[in-house]
Amino acid sequence: MLKLNNEKTELFVAISPHNKVYMPPVTIQVGPDIIQPSESVRNLGIIFDTHMSMSNHISSLCASVTYHLRNISRIRRYLDFNTCNHAVRSLVLSRLDYGNALLMGTNVTDIARLQRLQNWSAKLIFCANKYDHATPFLNELHWLPVKERITFKILLYVFKCINGIAPAYLSSCLALYCPVRRGLRSSSDITRLVEHRIQNRTLKSAVIVE
Fold first, then answer.
1. Which residues have CB under 8 Å from 148's CB, separation 6+?
2. Long-range interactions of 161-167: CB distance < 8 A, separation 24+
3. Which of 22, 48, 62, 92 has minimal CB crowding within 10 Å?
């Protein structure tokens, strides 16, 4: 019995470029209006595009982080080390970490864009020259690079799943491996996991909702 707002209603279809040719046109009629699929949608601050490449989200994230870094740069000479560190962590690093598990498998070029922003953040804290190497500053701050931060977030979710402290919809995706027969080499590996896969099928017919 939900009444939809036609102007705020969006239709989103996520499909790989390979299967897009097999996808029939999909539209939804809400009252007198026909809702066409959107190229990208925002949900909880994350922008999803039709191919789930996350490029649109990374572009938006880079723009937001750059805005804050430029503002901090303008007042850097008035800030001490700790104050600048806290400002960068709260305004920049928190944005780089938010939802970063969704960036696993993202294009290397897009990850490099985020890494350059993290390098800029570390150099800003230490008042370093833009041509200085960022690795010593990242080590001094105990910051993992962007790619490793994404891997760390995935491993954190895996730890929570196998220890029963993750949401049910995540815990149901992973389970510890239980060998069928004893004595196998795999039975001694306590870190081996089983991923519950769901078969994906391309939509072959349209669905009409009345």
1. none
2. 162/193
3. 22
Integer Cα distance of 90 and 83 in angstroms: 11
pLDDT tens, position by position, 118-134: 999 999 999 999 889 99
> Which residues face 47 on adjacent strands?
42
pLDDT band at 78 (very low <50, low <70, confident <90, very high): very high
CB 202 within 8 A of CB 22: yes
Q: What is the pLDDT of residues 80-99, one digit of tens each?
A: 999 999 999 999 999 999 99
Q: In sequence order, what are the beta bridge partners of 41?
A: 48
Query: Count of alpha carbons within 13 Å of 158, Cβ hemisphere only?
Result: 13
pTM recorded for the entire structure: 0.79
CA-only gyration radius of the chain, Å: 23
Q: Under DSSP, is residue 37 helix (H, G, I), strand (E, B) or coil?
A: strand
Task: End-to-end CA distance of the chain: give it in Å, rounded.
Answer: 11
- In the chain, domain spans: 53-153
- Look at strands 40-43 and 193-195 and give their pairing: unpaired
